[in-house]
Queue: 3 jobs
Job 1
Amino acid sequence: MPLCKRLELSHSIEIKTTPEKMWNYLKNPENYTTMHPKDHIKLIWTEGKPFELGSKFYCEQLIFEKVKKYNAQIKEVIPNRKIVFTLKFPVSLFSPEIKWLIEPKGSNTVFTAISYFRAGHLYKKLFKKSMKKLFEEHDRHVSEEGENLKKILEEKN
């Protein structure tokens, strides 16, 4: 059994908007807190411009009602379609990458948030209860984020 394997958690939501409008909303740093006002605290681009390949950012958000701080770097960008960012150490030990997909579907757009986690026999033995809580928290967070994004973008149409 592998020490670590990649586990993927995803959430998708269909929104009455265009990929271009969604992209413009997501790439505006000021929208980070409006996307999830309950959990998102701040986002600061520390190097480069928002969502440019190689650019870096720092963010803070609530997880389990505690402030968590992250540093990340943009790994892949396809404007109006895809954003991939990698999380930096120590978060990368457990959650190395997050991907946002923007896919046209008729006159709507599907937004998919995919989070990757390291899992495997060792993690299950050491962190079984905390992993279950983390996955539940992840599902709550991305579901609320998607619903907020839907409400905001559909009101703008």
Job 2
Amino acid sequence: MTLITLVSALAATMMSPTTSGQAAPVMTNTVVVDQEMISKGMRMQNPMVGGMMMSAQKDIIDNAVNSADHTTLVAAVKAAGLVDTLKSMGPFTVFAPTNAAFGMLPAGTVDSLLMAENKDKLSKILTYHVVAGKFDFNALARLIKTGRGSTTLMTASGGKLVAMMNGAHNIVIKDEYDNVASISTYDVRQSNGIIHVITKVLLPR
């Protein structure tokens, strides 16, 4: 039997009606479904932060404590008494400075801020990094476009941050002293908001 004859025979068999008592062949889309599930999982997967995966099912605090790059931020949040706030429903957008960002502050600044007598000052600085609502890269980019190059974000401390594009795919955040921080990791989803990792500590007036 030639290959052409074999293919023709198979095609005829598949196209012929089923006889009584025979079950029609069941066609499934199992492979397609699996591919869709995998694709969805990839879209929903959070970026790694501080060498650890961040879970979109955990809140901001429960994720932050797992990041090796944010131990200073976590210590500061605890010292300022903001743990319960950042574990609440929100949603919040947090611009999270890394340990390296805190290390760029003048020598002794972090140690001073962690002292009990400076709790209010520390709280003001930390809440200056928090914006009510959930603003991912696309949402920020839309606001910047609407604002013709920049948008002002009101922070939980009552201060203002300015978000601007730096190229087509990078957003920078400017504080009230005109210090500019780049966002190094975008869209880290949390159960109560979103985190963007930034390269500098932002300072309010």
Job 3
Amino acid sequence: MHDYTVYVLRCADNTLYTGITTDLERRVTEHNGEISGGAKYTSTRNPVRVVYQEGCDSRSAASKREYEIKRLSRKEKLDLIKEYKS
């Protein structure tokens, strides 16, 4: 089991949001405004849903992977999501 999860959310306006967490279920609940603590970006774009997730063993590894994903183009992110769902 991994300690951290890198995730990509699809927001209600069809934009993508990437983040890391130790508790994905709680984090999505926060992003959807059901409990406090969600990101400012997602607060006006909910509901959101998880379209990609990847486990990492450390915060450092998760942050590095988050950075890599954030640097991808939208098309590359959509390809990553499509590959994940296959």
